[in-house]
Amino acid sequence: MPLPTYTATRYVVPLREGGSLPAVLDTDEAGLFVAKFRGAGQGARALIAELIVGRLAQRLGLPVPEMALLHLDAAFGRTERDPEIQDILKGSRGFNVGLAYLDGAFNFDPVAAADFVPPELAADIVWFDALVTNIDRTARNPNILLWQRRPWLIDHGAALYFHHNWDAADAARARTPFAPIKDHVLLPLAGDLEAADARLAPQLTEAALRETLEEVPDELLMDAVEGREPPFASAEANRAAYLDYLTERLRLPRAFAEEAARAHQRRSTEQPTALPYRR
User: Fold this and answer.
1) Nearest-angstrom CA–CA distance, 263 and 42
2) Is the pLDDT of residue 85 over 50?
3) Burial of residue 227 (number of CB atoms within 10 Å: 0-12, 13-18, 19+)
């Protein structure tokens, strides 16, 4: 399904978690969305990661809330009294990224909610997070919501962190393993990681990657960071760089998949540790 674009009509409430200060916005067309703003701390590249990773996850059938581009016009948020929020909104005119607001969802607890994540799904998520170098899916910060008795993956702005230093994003970097996968919140629940690799990798063809990258707006790709020039001369050149990196990362042998499988094997042979008492 093509990525929809909606016009944000009302700033509902900030979500004061982390440094990016996302917020719930209303739209006339599709209701409430949790918005990530290009004017927040990490700028447009965090939104690019949200889009690429979220849409690739959806392409693989992983549970990600509905995604959309949210357009903020020049008048949006003028009545906002908080100067920090006002500054973010002023820097976020144009396209931003939203995920459908899941009313009544609560944060995933790896102990209490483990039964809601079957082993095959857990393995798929671990494999995928290793592919996109998502450092933000730990027990301390799972970035998983539980809604309608299902897990939902959110907050992918910290993934694809190679794009914060394009000069170092060569083929060798693309083929590196992802050591932080050992701390993934779903690793203890995961099934066969080698089977996940065989199941998912063939779906991420060059055509699939291209289609996903085409959904990223030019204005995000060409957005300057901290007053610097964009990393590439054109949006198409930037898309080509992401395509080269991801294509190289998916080539056999896949070091990230092998590292995930090793981490899973090590975890399965470890003695379980007693959990601290929780009230």
Assistant:
1) 30
2) yes
3) exposed
Check residue 181 and report its DSSP letter. G
**Which residue is associated with the tokens 């996302």?**
22
Taking the C-alpha atoms of residue 73 and residue 63, their distance in angstroms, rounded to an integer, is 30
Sheet with 106-107, strands from edge to edge, namely 106-107, 144-147, 150-153
Does 5 score more than 50 pLDDT? yes
- Is the pTM above the cut of 0.85? yes
Round the CA-based radius of gyration of the chain to a whole number and report it.
19
Enter the DSSP assignment of 200.
H
> Is residue 54 scored above 80 in pLDDT?
yes
Task: Give the residue among 59, 60, 36 at the shortest CA–CA distance from 49.
Answer: 36
Q: Which of 80-84, 136-140, 166-170, 275-279 has the lowest mean pLDDT?
A: 275-279
Half-sphere exposure of 155 (CA within 13 A, CB side): 18
Cβ contact 6:70 at 8 Å: yes
**Start-end of H helices in the chain:** 44-59, 83-90, 119-131, 171-174, 193-200, 206-214, 218-221, 235-249, 255-269
